[in-house]
Amino acid sequence: MNKNIDKLKAIIGRSSKVAIFSHTNPDGDALGSGIAWSNILKKMGHDVRFFVPNSYPSFLEWVSKELGETDIFFGKEDQKDFIKNAEVMFFMDLNNLSRTDGMAETIFPNKDAKKILIDHHPEPDTDFDISFSHPEMSSTSLIVYNLIIEGGLEHLLDINIATALYVGMSTDTGNFTFGNLNPELYSALAKIVNQGINPALLNVRLYNNYTKDRMKLLGHLLDNKMVFIENTEAAYIYLSKADQHAFNFKQGDSEGFVNYPLYIEGVNLSAMFIQTNECIKISLRSKGDIDVNNLARKYFNGGGHKNASGGKCFEGMEKAIETFVNAVKEK
Ligand code: 5GP
Ligand code: MN
């Protein structure tokens, strides 16, 4: 990491216009790592904007409002101008530029900008000038924390940056229940909490902050739309447009639903299928050695991590479910 940090310092030392990007359907780690890193660079005196391709779930709205600005990309001229003229680009919590979705066609033509990856997904693309790629880390926010410390920037930490990092570390580990829960993570948390954050309060804001509609939808899905695939250790939940209308569904309302089948003993592989206007969005989760990254890549043109991945199917709900069931039975 040290050699790369020297390179990074040389690049950001001389640059001022910095565009930071994170992935489509931004989650807590996408927002937390991007906001924390943009706040650090702003404090260093750079002209920084943090872009995401579409909106984040409502339970994360406070993160962007209170901790630092997040610029949702609508292709406005001022956004395009900033990206076209950026001298440095950071890509957070993604391993592939296609994950920047609608922003990609504005990003690609800027060949002059140095492109730097900060990410924890396996098998990253190689077309970056510098890569801080650490699939062994539980969140991109932890990598950002390490960059801050190893880059000698600890004096720039403050309560907002610490909170943003906490949000990423917590949400990507299911509030510290899965992933690589190693001593390094807890050491980082000690320093972060030392900035004056209140983890108990943050846990309430992150996890006890859902709408009634979401809770009722969850009850409905668990009762009526959760299917156990016979003679396998797999289950899935499917969410149709009709159910979305019935429960006043808003983007992000189903965040975390895919984990529920895994709470059951003997269920080690779980899928969630969500009907959207464009496609069926698929989320996959597993316990232990079952690799859902490969499953997402092979069958759903997606990717992610060993125990958490996602993808898409453009042939409708039935076909998406059938593909999953066949894949599971094949194993
Ligand atoms: P989620 O199920 O929460 O949408 O995504 C879980 C994980 O899979 C995340 O790490 C996310 O980056 C990855 N992922 C989700 N959808 C896609 C996709 O369409 N393509 C790729 N490459 N990764 C995805
Ligand atoms: Mn992440």
Briefly characterize the structure:
With 331 residues, this protein is of the alpha/beta class. The protein is built from 13 helices and twelve strands.
Protein model, in words:
It is a single chain. The chain is α/β, with parallel strands linked by helices. The protein contains 13 helices and 12 strands. It has helices spanning 2-14, 28-43, 61-67, 77-85, 104-107, 140-150, 159-171, 183-193, 199-207, 212-224, 241-246, 292-300, 317-330, and strands at residues 17-22, 47-52, 71-72, 88-92, 114-119, 130-133, 226-228, 234-239, 269-275, 280-286, 303-304, 308-313. The strands form 2 sheets. It has a 6-stranded parallel sheet with strand order 3-2-1-4-5-6, sandwiched between helices. Strand 7 and strand 8 form a beta hairpin. The two termini are 38 Å apart. The mean pLDDT is 96. Bound molecules: guanosine-5'-monophosphate and manganese (II) ion. The site of manganese (II) ion has 6 residues, from loops.
